[in-house]
Amino acid sequence: MALVLFNTLTGEKEQLRPVHDREVRTYHCGPTVHDFAHVGNFRSSIIYDILRRTLEYAGYHVEQVMNITDIDDKTIKRSQEEGVPLSSLTLRYENYFLADLRHLNIKVPEHLPHATHHIGGMVVIIEKLLRDGFAYKADDGIYFDITKSKGYGTLAGIKLESETQSRISNDEYDKKNVRDFALWKFWTETDGENGFDASFGRGRPGWHIECSAMAMSKLGETIDIHSGGVDLIFPHHTNEIAQSEAVTGKKFVNNWLHIEFLMVDGQKMSKSLGNFITIRNIVERGFSPIAYRYFVLGAHYRTKANFTWEALAGAQTALQRLKDHMGPEVGEEDADYRQQFLECILDDLDMPRALALAWEVAKDQNLSLATRTATLLDFDRVLGLGLKPQKIVEVPDEIKQLVAERTEARQAKNWAKSDELRDKINDLGWVVLDTESGPRISRK
Ligand SMILES: [Zn+2]
Q1: Would you say 104 and 94 are in contact if contact means Cβ atoms under 8 Å apart?
Q2: If you measure from the C-alpha of residue 66 to the centroid of ligand 1, how many angstroms do you get, rounded to a whole number?
Q3: d(CA 214, CA 121)
Q4: Is the peptide bond before 235 cis (omega within 30 degrees of 0)?
Q5: Which of 17, 27, 324, 370 has a beta carbon 3.0–4.6 Å from 331's, enabling a disulfide?
Q6: pLDDT, tens digit, for every residue of 378-392?
């Protein structure tokens, strides 16, 4: 069975055909490390992790790249505001980002290239684009001439004909076309100590060229899957295609995967609306980052998701219940369920269906507890929810007695007494969960 993914470039679901047989090479646009990343960014990172885990589950070897943008307008501005060197500012936020990846149980990609370590490769690409007539020098930088690019805008569904009519002479940027984009920005005083020497003049790279250079340096000229948020389709990914294909003459990416927006209370997240939420905020409110991961899996990556604190609370409760369904012994996985699971995940990473299937397993009384536990553990290789077999613990007689009294109270529909006994059990450090097969006692 092969993985089928929706390809933004063609607008269709397509079967994955890796360039290098059983090895899949993927690139994901990573963070610009000038501040904390927000939960919307991490929705993308979680889906990228799901892609990786799905490929591994299906038997592929994966080479994953997530870049770190450690030089651009925002990073330079922030470092100047704080009066710290650019590299110490970016290292600080990179470390926060990597810690959040771990908290979310995201496997760290093989390659985390930094833009500032790949300047040489960017300069070589720009030199070739200048030589071949795809780029030109303006007063403030080197620009890519989009009229020279075959099929510019296909990914975003933009037709260039209508754009060329709107050509204007832009005094500020001295560009030939408003949509021509900067490959290199010449150094100005506001850049301070941040600049690199190049044959075409001292300066720093534009954001788009950073990704093309890092992607091709780590993965080759044609990549199997390139992903990112839908907000990157235009101009970022559109421009990555134009410059990469101009320099190699080859197709840059076979499959483009885009993750939809995360809304917060039905609105777009932004600092100005005050609804900018980070993983730290989630932890401060007493939630586990894995509850956020569970929440993300509940919506397909191609649909908008709406974050609310109530929804996160629901996810946390559901996650705990799923964990409570794990038994102490691990038996054989159920082959039928495993097959169904594979079908879900290989169908465009259908996580809502995969999660629903996990619940079906958890509740299937036709399977032994050991089989259910083994099957859920197997699913968790992809879901990444940190499911574990329950440790066997000796329940003290006192607790057993209280649980038995509570069961009696419930049978007599004496809810007040039942609640009172539950509180007493909790106070003694134990939790009782009512399952189809009777009460289950665990450590708090
Ligand atoms: Zn990028």
Answers
A1: no
A2: 9
A3: 8
A4: yes
A5: 370
A6: 999 999 999 999 887
- Other C-beta atoms lying within 10 Å of the C-beta of residue 235: 17
**Cβ atoms of 291 and 319 closer than 8 Å:** yes
pLDDT of residue 172: 47
Cα distances (angstroms) measured from residue 368 to each of 178, 221, 358: 65, 50, 15
Instruction: Output phi, psi for 329, to 5 deg.
Output: -110, 145
Closest to 282 in 3D by CA, of 39, 69, 70, 45 = 39
CB 429 within 8 A of CB 443: yes
Please list, in sequence order, all residues whose beta carbon lies within 8 angstroms of the beta carbon of residue 430, skipping any fewer than 6 positions away.
395, 399, 441, 442, 443, 444
Centre of ligand 1 from the C-alpha of residue 78, in Å: 20
CA of 270 to the centre of ligand 1 (A): 20
Task: Give distance in angstroms: CA of 49 to centre of ligand 1.
Answer: 17
Q: Tell me, in angstroms, the distance from the centre of ligand 1 to residue 387's CA.
A: 33
Whether pLDDT at 167 is above 60: no
Q: How far is the CA of 32 from the centre of ligand 1 (A)?
A: 10
C-alpha 69 – ligand 1 centre gap (Å): 9
**pLDDT per position as a tens digit, 67-105:** 999 999 899 999 999 999 999 999 999 999 999 999 999
Cβ-contact 50, 353 below 8 angstroms: no
Which H or E run contains 49?
helix 39-57
Q: Where are the alpha helices (DSSP H) in 325-396?
A: 335-346, 351-363, 369-383
The predicted-structure confidence for 280-300, as pLDDT tens digits, reads as follows: 999 999 999 999 999 999 999
Residues 352, 358, 359, 365, CA torsion sign? positive
